[in-house]
Design goal:
Layout lengths: L1 E6 L3 H11 L4 E6 L2 H11 L3 E5 L8 H10 L7 E6 L4 H9 L4 E4 L4 H14 L1
């Protein structure tokens, strides 16, 4: 069973993503900000991190992505950034931070499942 860490400062967004994935074969965990995302990722060693870009606190999604991707113990973790910011430079910044994919909110549940499935096949 693949582990997913959902990271978003809005509990309702985390719940929607959880509901989208609950019928798939995933063990789902949650974090509310970049700092706790990094802490939880180090403990859980998730296969996937689905992370909002814009979050309050000391670490936004881009910085959390950089740190996750730089951590040797998390080298097999795939990061998919989720953001309302959909300009080309936003997506480019996400991919430069190490994200494997970048989905613009609102995205369809099917698009999220497809993104996970395509990365799962790469494993």
């Amino acid at each position: 069973m693949k582990k997913i860490l959902i990271v978003d400062d809005h509990a309702d967004i985390r719940r929607l993503i959880r509901m989208t994935l609950e019928f798939e074969d995933y063990e789902i965990h949650e974090a509310a900000n970049g700092d706790s995302a990094l802490e939880r990722a180090l403990i859980l060693q998730p296969d996937f991190v689905l992370m909002d870009v814009m979050m309050p606190g000391g670490m936004d999604g881009l910085e959390a992505c950089r740190r996750i991707r730089a951590e040797p113990s998390l080298r097999n973790t795939h990061v998919i950034l989720l953001s309302a910011r959909g300009q080309a430079q936003d997506k480019e910044a996400g991919l430069k931070a190490g994200a494997h994919d970048y989905l613009v909110k609102p995205f369809s549940p099917l698009r999220l499942i497809d993104a996970l499935a395509s990365l799962w096949l790469v494993d």
